[in-house]
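Changelog note: in this version the structure field was regenerated for every chain. One regenerated record is shown below for reference.
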Amino acid sequence: MVKPFMPQLVYYEPNAITYKLGEELLDKFNDLGVEIRKTTSHNQVRNIPGEGHLQQYRNAKSTLVIGVRKTLKFDSSKPSAEYALPLATGCMGHCHYCYLQTTMGSKPYIRTYVNVEEILDQAHQYMVERSPEETRFEASCTSDIVGIDHLTHTLKRTIEYFGQSDLGKLRFVTKFSHVDHLLTANHNGKTRFRFSINADYVIKNFEPGTSPLSDRIDAAKKVVDAGYPLGFIVAPIYLHEGWKEGYRNLFINLDEQLPKTQRGDITFEMIQHRFTKPAKRVIEKNYPKSKLKMEEEDRRYKWGRYGIGKYIYQKDEEAELKDTLESYVDQFFPEAKIEYFT
């Protein structure tokens, strides 16, 4: 079992303590004896301890910055939601393939935002603009928010906010099993709680620092018992030796563990492995011994947002992945909905 995240080092922006949550977090870490440093801005975080890049990188991933979210314009989050809800940035996990490798760039530390009410007020404005349609918000675009929420409870506050909304829906995904404090939240069915799952080979080789699959499934059972709509993201779907058997075993495991009586509203999202050239450079720098295969000549190039293309599987491989994974869903979870394959 992976222990709940606890930072080794905490930075805070001065204006963070003008918010109640900022003050509470500083008191909490001070009582716990965590080293606390002041910084004028998260961009000015310097001198992460460690000898050499790899040690500094690992130490940065266990550093928390308590700050204020200044940009309240939300990014799009297609295909899973209309908007990304920015509650935190960065992740304590060490998934080799993660796109946060590049979006975080030289700042792999974790940031939590204490101006939660301002963020939720902005979400309300987006809901008003789209009324009478529902608006979906994705809370895990830039972080694994569950991984730090046992410390901050910003996600719990957000779940309860959406539980009272008429036109808002909340979604997030996690690789962590530390969900107990969220089970009592008044969600009113407005939040879809999703877990990232994968074949044993992928979790074993590419997802260090995250909860084991068995713990994630146990957490999923708790979540569905608490009445949350449940979902799973199979990502990244990765071609490896014995991949068909590996993914079939994943679905067998899921089928055996999840109660048959609680499957009326399960969703699946499927994302094939992809990488960009900048991501490949960063991954090879941060995880030089990784077994992750990223040969451009074996992939096809697909243009993405902002003119940055990505390398995905060849069309015949993509079709086989899609057909195989969708057949497993049909076999083991025939009542579930596949939201997309990309």
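Spot check on this record: The two ends are 31 Å apart (CA to CA). The mean pLDDT is 94.
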